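Researcher: Here's the sequence for the chain we discussed earlier.
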Amino acid sequence: MISKKSTLLYFLFLFSIYFFSQEKFTISGYIKDAETGEDLMAANVFIVELEKGVSTNTYGFFSLTLP
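Model: Thanks. This is the structure I predict for it:
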């Protein structure tokens, strides 16, 4: 027979997996020209596997939040 304590631990384990799977990550940075070092505005950053992407701003900065 399964005790109440082991059942509770089992459900807590399942809920912790669910909550950690909802965590998001942010990737950000600047894109610059390799030769001149100038900021590249309107450059595209795209992650093919997730089909998500963003463009850089006028300072070459981008920020992309991933699941």
